[in-house]
Structure formats: C-alpha cells, structure tokens
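Lab notebook: predicted structure, single chain.

Context: the supervisor wants predicted structures on file for every construct in the current expression panel, including those that have not yet been purified. This is the next one on the list. No modifications to the sequence; it matches the entry in the shared construct table.
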Amino acid sequence: MPDHPRFESLEGLRGTGKSTLAPMLAAARQAILVATVPLPYQPLRQALDERTNVEARMCFYLSGLFTAAEEIQHHLDAGVPVVVESYFARCLTTHRALGARLGITLPSWLPTPATYHLVCDEDERQRRLAERNKPVSRWDSLIETVTDRVTDAYASFPMHRVDTTGRSPDEVLRVIMNTDTQGAHSHADPKPVGAHPHVLPAVPRHVAGTCRP
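Prediction complete. Output recorded below exactly as produced.
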C-alpha cells in the first residue's frame, strides 16, 4: 500500500462530467468511490430538497460531508485511495451563491483532496443537460440562475482546471491521470467562510426562490 494514498475530488457545475468521470477515475486509481451524501441521508434528501430554507439545506449537506469525511479518513488510514464526486467546495459555493449566510469554519482534521475543477463550454453543457434522463430539483434550477457566482467562487479554490468541452470521457480521464497534483493543499482551510478569499462575496438575500430573512 502507498504511504500516502490518493484522495481526489471532482468539482464543477451540472453537466460538466462529474458523475461520469468519478467512477472511471476510481476504477483507474483502484480507489474507493465514497458518496458524500451517505446512504443513511438519502431518505431525507428528497424531502429536504422540497423545502425552501437554504440554510437548512446547507446544514444537511454539510452534515453528510462531515460523516463522509470520517469514512474517507478511515480508508486513507488503511492505505486505500479515495475518489469523491464533489466535496466541501461544491456545498459552500452553491449555497453561498443561493444566499446562505452561515459562517463555517472547517476543522483542520478534514482530509483534503487533490481537486479537479471540470469546466465546459456553456452551449455544450446545456446540450448535455437536455440529453439527461435525471430528475431536476427546484434547487438544481435555482443554481442554474447563479452559475456565474458559483464559477467565480470555484475559481478561487485550489483546484486543477480540466476543460471537458469536445472531449470524450476517456480523453478527460487521461487529462486527469496526467495532471501533476504535487503542491495540492494537504490541510483543510480553518478560516471562517465569509472571511476568506476562497469563498463568494456577499450576495443579495433576495435571490429568487430562497427563504426570506
């Protein structure tokens, strides 16, 4: 077993290729693909997504992530590499873009991945979404109205940018496999969300569809 097993995360907007690439990357790395919304949380996910409180939704997903982080650390301690389809960056950026005002301090014990930010030409991304046979939640629709804010926030996180435009999944996987991840941050950022350049600036509280103060 390697002394330092890989921990890798795929981030990006819907339609950029995360759900396709995550199992492919896990297979290529002989890694465990860990769900960041753990199985016990799944029955609550749909019910919560039908509600309108953005802070409540953010807390739910953060709880799932912290639970998943314990499982991830267990695998890493055993020398087993791990891949996840999105991690704390997605939760923080999307909920802040939708108006969440919670101050979050990430603890230093969190396992921190080498992260690949998947991006795609907008026309192609929309074509991919139109071809999907997946349910679209009201939150998915809301996030589509603030994609610029989410993308801006993603750009300030320590990630490796991977353009999936016009590339097959196998071609994107080769790009990721050939990416030098040396220098990736090895510790979670302990600074509070909202007081750090790696988070979104303040956004108006009246984003359509979010809860009122």
